[in-house]
Amino acid sequence: MQVPAQFDYERATGVRHAIALLTRYGPESRLVAGGHSLIPMMKLRIANPETLIDINDLDELTGISITDGALRIGAMVRHAELLDSPLAVEHFPILVDAERVIADPVVRNRGTIGGSLCQADPSEDLSAAFTALHAVAVIEGESGRREVPAREFHTGPYQTVVGDAEILVEVRVPIRTGSGSAYEKVERRVGDWAVAAGGAALWLDGDTVGEVGIGLTAVGAAHFCAPQAEDFLRGGPATEERFAEAGRIAAEHVRPTADQRGPEDYKRHLAGELTTRALRRAAARARGSEA
Amino acid sequence: MTTTDTTGVDAPGTAPTEVAPTQVCASTPMGYGSMRRKEDARFIRGQGRYLDDIALPGMLHGAILRSPFAHARIVSIDTSAAEAHPKVKAVITGETLAGLGLAWMPTLSHDVQAVLATDKVRFQGQEVAFVVAEDRYAARDALGLIEVDYEPLDAVIDARTALDEGAPVIRDDLDGRTDNHIFDWEAGDAAATDDVFARADVVAECDMLYPRVHPAPMETCGSIASMDPVTGKLVVYTTTQAPHAHRTVYALVAGLPEHKIQIIAPDIGGGFGNKVGIYPGYVCAVVGTIVTGVPVKWVEDRSENLMATSFARDYHMRGEIASTKDGKLLGVRVKVLADHGAFNGTAQPSKMPAGLFHVFSGSYDIAAAHCQVTGVYTNKAPGGVAYACSFRITEAVYLIERLVDVLARDQGWDPAELRMKNLVQPEQFPYTTALGWEYDSGDYPRTLQKALDIAGYAELRREQAEKRERGELMGIGISFFTEAVGAGPRKTMDILGLGMADGAELRVHPTGKAVLRLSCMSQGQGHSTTFAQIVAQELGISPDDIEVVQGDTDQTPFGLGTYASRSTPVSGAATVMVARKVRERAKIVAAAMLEVSPDDLEWEKGRFQVAGDPSASAAIADIAMAAHSDLELPDGVEGHLDATCVYNPPNLTYPCGAYICVVDVDAGTGQVKVRRFIAVDDCGVRINPMIVEGQVHGGLADGVGMALMQLMAFDSDGNHLGASFMDYLLPTAMECPSWELGETVTPSPHHPIGAKGVGESATVGSPPAVVNAVLDAIGVRHADMPLTPAHVWRAMRGDPIRTDLAID
């Protein structure tokens, strides 16, 4: 019978209040945002928090905007909102690609960007997407705000740098010219977690790769990224041959584990194949030549 | 034999050759036709009344503690902390039940099954203890307070090792048991088949697994048991497809007098065979109400449903097919290893341990066939016959349709031509197969040709060739199936000695409205509509004026229920016969009303009129009132207007169908896209074509699911790897193309209105079409279901996955 164990419930009225509640209730308390990971885990009694601190009233964590030359996405932005965001479409289509394949409309209507990142599921899609974009996470605690690069945000499966009494408040992605980005995912069925997925962001200077980011999902890539493949591409020509080689390099460095979604060799193959495909589409977008 | 056909094609770009899509009648027909479902007004308003919607006064809630191990000895169970919980009313263990003689119960397959484990647990998720508490939260909390000391044992997970020397003996509860063997069973003529194979020009063989899958109905199983301590009457609200069978089994198992048991099946949210058997939770709820004196509700959650209730298939098959060098099929034979789990609890005709699997010679004129089936115990949940399988015809159709494709591939023959060349011909009906079945009717070549025409088969093959030139992978898969549905007759088909016949009672009220009482039980099939339409067709009463009562054993006649697509063939026939009995009575009443001889009356739908004088007539409503009135009736004619009937089917009905699937495969990732699916079904006369098409749609989605994603695998410790919808994948609309349906109609000659069953046709027929299409696309001889992206990619590399075990 899937019913949760008993817990206390608090409704936060602001970020400072939420932090105070986290401080008061300690490590056995959990923030609840969309609840689409936490509540099922509680019903299965995999998670048994003593206190839920509801942050759904925190309007200061909502909204998508361009602020100080960066795309700012509030932690409480729902997946559906990011999926439909004209700013995301314009600047970072990788986010729209990723959102389109996250779960289903019911989950996307409720689940949040911050919730996904903080859940830190190795198969979660946005972590790789923000990693590819060289995004920055903004975390607030009692002593104020701090910024952490997306690729330093995760410390392991289901683990992040966000402290017990801290809240992820927003994600920022610096906007630079010449960018193109894309996300490619293989799933067994629509709405399933990724068997593997690859995201790529390119900043082209003519035909040269000025900057590049590659994010990989569910293939055991440390911090969701592929630095060796990025290093290979950076400063070189953006060609099909080099994208294929980057895929090969990315595949070489991942550490996938077999599960019912697929064996290790297949996931390693996908890491390469999807890296190459994402790079190809990102380049086409950067050139404004996507079919 | 007459054959008619119509086509409803709804995919863009495909030119329908005949008639338009099925029209839904806005107004109610007085008989057959695509009228909207009477029950839907209730369901779409959220006014269905399912098991979990029912709350009885004072009702308590049960929860089951389940085994985390696949195989372990129970050293001790300490329930004291749970019993001390302030909201807990009772904790029941196997020991408690043993005291009542209820620790074990009979299965539907000559075995016993633990209700709550006493000695050992034999599969992960097996029932160990039952808590009754004031609410479901407390019941669940208390499960965590029960301490069970287990001594883990080696588990038998790979069915292929179950009979190995030294394998752990799972059923040491059975006297003298030293291995995991359940049964050996065979059908067909082994010698004749061997002879055919010895002389054949060509033989193709193939090992294939039809993996363990689960029906996963939207509503899980549950029960509310309520024993009245004063009257001694037990009322059980429960999710059952077969309420009368349940009542009798409760009487036999619990020793309760049968007239003091009332089974009520409320609305059921899908069954597919999952809700045929009696589960331990049901028995525990009954014990719970007896112990506490108040009603006890137990409703399982999704994981419990997937882990512990009736699964389907799990057939390891080695098939062989023989033909001449010209492609004339000669023989087929198969050896099956059947994984039945820890208890032999398959729900099928008692005399047939492999169900109706021995229809595996399929739709072809094959001289000789033989099968040998061995059933084994493993440390997995019991079951095997569920999920719209028509008693294992799913496995049979998959076997023959894969073998035909393998043979075609080996010989370079076109799979459509090979099928067409070997189909049973229309003039051969009734056709007796090499395995002894008498197929009633069909025009197989016409049905296949129709599917090929809708598909544009030649053009598809051209497109495929062009794409191959460009390195793109496209596949076309065909299956042609013959179903066998509508079990009995009672002398050959029974469950626990109860013959497979079904009753119907029809009562026309004085004002001409009617109530029809049935022994079958809808799980969403639309019985309230279809059966009302049958009466409407026979008596001329509007379907809206006919109440269909089902599911309550105190309100309905005895019968074996709804499974294996038997409602229309059996209860439908019972309904026709009972309506005709009423019509005969009405005729005598009408004769008395009109003061003529019954022989002078003619039936015009809805009224009897005097031959040659249409002005002298009586409508059914007038007749009904007269039958209840002071009208003097002829001697020997009872008043009122009602009748009862029990229908014992003379034979099964044999629907058929030709399915064609078109897929595109991404060579770089192994992902499969089902682009088109053409389904031409022949289920005889269609009472409500819209409902038939709905049934077909659902079954086709099942086929896509089984072929591409659905799976319950187990790791070497016996952990269930498909125990939630995160791991057990059901297809969605996104995986389904817009179905392209067609039909041919060859009425069943032995059914009173020529109807055949259809509920499971598409689930039975579609998986091989999808698999054949994928393997055609990637040029691989065989790979087992499900063809997930990983599996397709591996199969392309000649290294297919063993899908019943954990991927490592």
Account of the protein in words:
Chain A: Keywords: FAD, Flavoprotein, Oxidoreductase. The complex is a heterodimer of chains A (291) and B (808). Chain A has 291 residues and is of the alpha+beta class. Chain A folds into 3 domains: 8-54, Uridine Diphospho-n-acetylenolpyruvylglucosamine Reductase, domain 2 (2-Layer Sandwich); 59-174, Uridine Diphospho-n-acetylenolpyruvylglucosamine Reductase, domain 3; 179-286, CO dehydrogenase flavoprotein, C-terminal domain (Enolase-like, domain 1). Helices cover 35% and strands 25% of the residues of chain A. Chain A contains 11 helices and 13 strands. Chain A has helices at 15-25, 38-43, 79-83, 86-91, 93-100, 105-110, 113-119, 125-132, 227-233, 240-253, 264-286, and strands spanning 8-11, 29-32, 51-54, 64-67, 70-74, 136-141, 144-149, 154-156, 159-160, 167-174, 179-186, 196-205, 208-217. Chain A has a 5-stranded antiparallel β-sheet with strand order 4-5-10-6-7, with helices on both faces. A 3-stranded parallel β-sheet of chain A has the order 1-3-2, with helices on one face. In chain A, strand 4 (64-67) and strand 5 (70-74) form a beta hairpin. Chain B has 3 domains: 51-153 and 220-268 and 275-299, Aldehyde oxidase/xanthine dehydrogenase, a/b hammerhead (Aldehyde Oxidoreductase, domain 3); 311-487 and 651-796, Aldehyde Oxidoreductase, domain 4; 501-647, Aldehyde oxidase/xanthine dehydrogenase, molybdopterin binding domain (Aldehyde Oxidoreductase, domain 4, 2-Layer Sandwich), CATH 3.30.365. Helices cover 26% and strands 24% of the residues of chain B. Chain B has 18 helices and 35 strands. In chain B, the strands form 10 sheets. Chain B has a 7-stranded mixed β-sheet, with helices on both faces. A 5-stranded mixed β-sheet of chain B has the order 1-35-34-33-23, sandwiched between helices. Chain B is globular and about 80 Å long. Chain B starts with a strand and ends in a 12-residue tail after the last helix. Mean pLDDT of chain B is 95; it is low at 6-22. The A-B interface holds A 1-3, 5-6, 44-45, 104, 186, 188-193, 195, 258-263, 266-267, 269-270, 273-274, 277 and B 63, 136-137, 139-141, 144, 299-304, 668-671, 708-709, 711, 713, 721-722, 726-727, 729, 731-732, 734-735, 788-790, 793-794, 801, 806-808.
